[in-house]
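pasting input
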Amino acid sequence: MPTKTMGTVLTRRGMARRTLLKTVGVGLGAISLAPVISACGMIPGMGGDKMTIWTDATFAPPSDDYQTEEINKWAKSKNIEVEITRETGDNVRQKLQAAIESKQLPDVTQVDDGRFTAFYPAGIFTDHSALFAEFGKQWGGWYKPGERIVTRDGKQWMLPYSIDSNLILYRKDILEAGGVKEAPKTWDELYDVAKKLQTPPNIYGVGFQFSKAGTDAESTFGLMMLSYGASIVKEDGKLGTVKSPEMLAFLTRIKSSWDMGVYPPGVTGWDNAANNTSLQDEKTIFIHNPASPLVWFRTNKPDMLPKIGVSAVPAGPKGQFNTAYIRDGFAILNTGNQKRMDLSKELMRHLYSKDVYRKWIELAFPSPAVAGMEDMEIWKNPQRKGFLDAAKTGILQGHPGPPSQAYSEFTNRQPLISAAARMAVEGWTAEQALDELAKTAEDVFSKYK
Amino acid sequence: MSVQSAVLRPTRYRDMTARHKEWVLGYAMLVPAFTFIIGLIAYPAAWAMYLSFTDKVIGQQETFVGFQNYVWLSQWPNFGRMIWNTALLAVVGVALKAFIGMTMALALNEQFFGRTVIRALLFLPWTVPAFVAGLIWRWMYDDQNGLFNWALMGMGLISEPVSWLGDIRYAMGAVMSVVVWKGFPFFAIAFLAGMQGIPSEQYEAAEVDGASAWQRFLYITLPGLRHVMLITCMLSLIWTANTFDLVFIMTRGGPSNATEVFTMLIYDQGIRNGRIGEASTAAMMAMPIFAGLIIILTHYLQDKDEERA
Amino acid sequence: MQGTLEVPVQKASWLGPAKGRTKRYIVYATVAFYLFVVLLPLYWMFRSSIAENDQMYGTAIEFFPKKFTLAQFDAAINKWRFGLYLSNSVAVGLVTTVLTTVMATLAAYSLVRLRFPGRAALARSVLFVYLVPGGLLFIPLFMIMQRLGLLNSQLALVISYQTFAIPFCTWMLIGYFKGIPPEMEEAAQIDGASRLQSMWLVLLPMAAPGLVAAAVFTFTLAWNEFLFALVFITSDSFRTLPVGLAGLIRGDIYLWGPMMAGSVLAAIPVMVLYTVANKMLVQGLAAGAVKG
């Protein structure tokens, strides 16, 4: 039975400890409150003359650093404050969503073609036609793919900066050792060469991802699909006949390539970094990727760099297609603050100026969006030249139709990778995969009547 | 006192009955927490509920579409598979976490050399951000360079690398192992803290009575931890069913839907495509299940409580 | 009476007297096994943080690297500003924890020890907060923060973290409070203490292990939170660790070295916190032994 003595004892003991905890708690609170209070004092409003600029973190950090440096230099020269935020593209996209809904837009944001297509209907982009024409004149013209993406209703709504492409990166040394002088020109050739020259389990032939985590392969299979003469949409962008004999032929080609055993068994779980790693670790012969492994080799394994070949995407029976997408682009957003919008135009002029633009392209890897740089030394390197050529002739997402939100959503579901995975992992026939593909297309496009 | 209160209506606090004073105190102590909760959640919850009946896309004006989203979602291919994956991950994941957490807590409750340091170390998985944990494990499970394949091949147990994350048979197991790895410290520490509240006299008395270790565990430890167990399991069920980061980083729902959970759906629809109308619908459809879970478990807790009183 | 405040004694437990050898071995074996499983990935993280770049990739990976370097930490702190992110995370975590623990303690006490109409329903409703997933929540919360003028401040995070911290902390404390028999507090009240005094002087000391556990958990939740920190903060000077770490993923290239170094940095404060908290758990053990 609790007694009075017990109660007193407890209380005293408890008090000792409570005091200790209290002091610790207050101490911690005070320490941590300090930064918070100073932080509150530093709450920047989105008003005033501070410009907010959202940029992308790319796979070539030196180019990012250079860009940040240049923006800061420009800001200093104009005596204004800028706040630069650099995130990966997906994160910028998420922040934009919140910004759009709450109408709290940054002044300038980097936009790639995916974000442009997604957010264009929200009306956040301003008319950039004047700047577009100005830079076009300054640089001797824009490459067509970039121009096509940003032009709606005859006006331009953002400025392309770089055009990237996914190309076939392959082990030139292995091909040469195997007596293959040139990169394969057709898919059949590619698979045959891969089968002939691979030495599993050390080196496999082809590293295309069969997993939804590897969005690269959606583009790979998309190009293959088009090269077989199949397509999802018609030229007006509306849903076409998915269940065509060409589509079946294309799916059969994927299935047969899987049965050939040219893929490392793990491709069903690869993400976008895994195919890079496979080439970097010398485990595959062919991958389909943007230039990031080349940047990696340059930093980490420079002696391997000359052994990597870059070639255009192979042709199918009905044609050959490369992608071209805007990887870096800028947009001045509709913030309603005329002063900052004008300042943003000045910033664009700075970034597109001769020295800044050229230096940035040197440090980055993709092709510029403008035509006037073809004289640069870097294009003598066949690896970089491949990307330049692709930028000029590449097709856009949604081909043969124009880029559209419907197609974008369709691609986001990774339908081609899903079809490939079904056939590889679950043993579906090409017909079954085709059925599901058609259903997915129907499902998505029906929402966008 | 009671007669007085029956006749008059006390308006001043000190004239209230003890019972009414208790009411006032009770509500007053809830005010801080509930202000935050209602202030921060009520609006978003109502907003989400409203959106599920519209076709809202980010940046565009929405139009009311009634139950269209719900119909569309229930016809989603692999809908059943997704529910199964989520339920499997949640239920088995929590069961494993609870089991491992319990054995851990029991072991850590004993005195041995280095116990303090080891306790701190064992807490670490919970401190690593989910996506970092996912990345490290992903690397370990990697088919090309992964630690596991390297070790297994080195020991001669397998001849070819196994694609843990790419094989439809192993992917879910691999993901679940990471979920459990990351989550069990929570259970271990919660149980450990709860065990401190079990009076040692009970154990001593039981020992004197001749009870075996197993019996002591069953009849003293478990009942003593009853409430803590129920609550940690309930919280963990909700959290595990909402797992996103880990699954996303490791498999993104693959290979071929083997690990697709319903948070993937919300992400793919809401965040990637900006179609928050449909994303809200997915969340709405999950709500009754979670609400039911909460109600059942808390009901069970309340019942026990009344018994004690 | 058992135990004193100076030396925490070995309480009797389910296992019985610690002298039995087989029992000792069971304990050791269990602990060793779990230690291995837990530490393996973390060893990898640690090892990568002090290894050279070529150790991150490829077939030349050594389990125990022969060369060590501090270059990764140097890069993480100096180039990638992880020192700054660390202090931001600490600030946000501490303030969140203090705020949450105070509110949750009040709420939990009320829901466990006091009787009033609607008590059960209110207890449940605290949990209903979890029905709205973060992926949907961030947009309306963003709008709320904007209206409060708190965007891009640490206060926005502290406030928005209450959404998941309060339900969690409250229910953890409900669990611990329920496990403590009310007789002690009733005795104190008979002695003249008010309800609040009995809570402060009797219940909380006895529930100290639970309080500490709940506080540590809350801190960890805030520490690891990613989405709100990503969306509400735009300046680099307020960025927190998870967002900083995610920034090292650049497309399809992962900067493993600085990322692992950054992860190790991220783990240290929580370790420290837990070690400190552990001492309080032990003290709680001793005081808790003063019973009945």
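fyi Confidence is low (pLDDT under 50) at residues 1-10, 284-292 of chain C.
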